[in-house]
Amino acid sequence: MAASIPSPSNPARPKKLLDQVRDAIRLKHYSYRTEESYVLWIKRFILFHDKRHPNDMGRPEIEAFLTHLATRERVAASTQNQALAALLFLYRNVLHRDDPALFDSLNIARAQKPAHLPTVLTKEEVGKIIRLIPNEYQLMARLLYGSGLRLMECLHLRVKDIDFVQSQIIVRDGKGEKDRVTMLPTSLVAPLQEHLARVKHLHDQDLAKGHGYVDLPYALARKYPNANREWIWQYVFPSRSLSTDPQDPRSDRLYRHHAHESGLQKAVAAAARRAGIPKRVSPHTFRHSFATHLLEAGYDIRTVQELLGHRDVSTTMIYTHVLNKGPKAVRSPLDTGCSADL
After folding, report:
1. Which among 150, 256, 258, 293 is annotated as catalytic?
2. Neighbouring C-beta atoms of residue 66, cutoff 10 Å
3. pLDDT tens digits for range 252-289
4. Which of 148, 244, 304, 317 might form a disulfide with 290, Cβ 3.0–4.6 angstroms?
5. Residue 205 belongs to what H/E stretch?
6. How far is C-alpha 182 from the chain's CA centre?
7. CA 302 to chain centre
8. Is the pLDDT score of 234 beyond 70?
9. Active-site residue among 175, 195, 211, 321?
10. Is 257 marked active-site?
11. Is 284 a catalytic residue?
12. pLDDT tens readout for residues 54-76
């Protein structure tokens, strides 16, 4: 059994396994979503085997769980891979069992990986949907489409990340913990400035009441003790309400976190239904549409790759299959010279 970590609040009491997992994930600066996902899969793995401790299990139990996901629960390949990644993290980084025989060439049923093409909207459909989104969420939707942001990248934007002089947005700690720069649409400069003026007024009110705190990445709160109340660190799209610090719920400090993603998700889905768009539309659909429309306009695929923050150009290539010019932008022979004779 791996040694347990004593709890800071009670040195004699070891930390629970899932708390150890959270500590290890935060040490590696993984995203909050990855943390929640890994903890969920590890919990499911333990419950699947009747609450046995993972240190008392090994390769057969891992294979049985992953096979169950594919054959009985019929999860997608990406879901099964995510569960496998969570278990890899548990055994290697928490239990410190880095035996290659534990995971190499697992004898499991693999979930099928369907070749899905992304849903893409026409420019007219984008306009219809955005006009039907409530004002509270409309600016977010316009940023997703106009700058190619992911939903959480948009919600994680801070005041300092908007560069009005250079007409660009700096995306901090995007997917894969990478920073990148993307465009700030000219048409959004004035609306964003007006929006930030309202957010500044809200922040000033919070400060006047003794609040105004915001969570900071990594250890910046310790390095710069007053930075968590500075204007430049505030979220561009703040939450309506104040909340306690999730890292220290016993503290009486109230924080202004960013808006919750579910609000925009519901607003976009409702707007698409009202617009009569017969497609499954989510906030991420705006990012797909951004990439496709840039390629349609003739922009180089490497440029689009950089704006999207894709590690490999093959990921960006998927959008060449959904251009409004047929598969791979190839013209049908029926349209190239012989149609007049038919």
Report:
1. 150
2. 23
3. 788 999 999 999 999 999 999 999 999 999 999 999 99
4. 148
5. helix 189-208
6. 17
7. 22
8. yes
9. 175
10. no
11. yes
12. 999 999 999 999 999 988 898 88
Is 150 among the residues known to form the active site?
A: yes
- Indicate the SS3 state at residue 337: coil
**Catalytic residue list contains 255:** no
- The greatest distance separating any two alpha carbons of the chain, rounded to the nearest whole angstrom, comes to 89
241 burial via Cβ count (<10 Å: 0-12, 13-18, 19+): exposed
Cα 306 from Cα 308, distance rounded (Å): 5
* 74 is a catalytic site residue: no
- Per residue in 151-204, pLDDT (tens digit) is 999 999 999 999 999 999 999 876 766 889 999 999 999 999 999 999 999 999
- Marked catalytic residue, from 15, 68, 172, 284: 284
Q: Which has the closest alpha carbon to 231: 202, 209, 274? A: 202
pTM for the predicted model, two decimal places: 0.74
Which one-letter amino acid corresponds to residue 255? Y
The closest of 174, 131, 126, 114 to 288, measured between CA atoms, is 126
Positive or negative, the CA dihedral 21, 89, 26, 313 is negative
Residue 95: φ, ψ to 5°: -90, -10
Q: Catalytic site residue 175?
A: yes
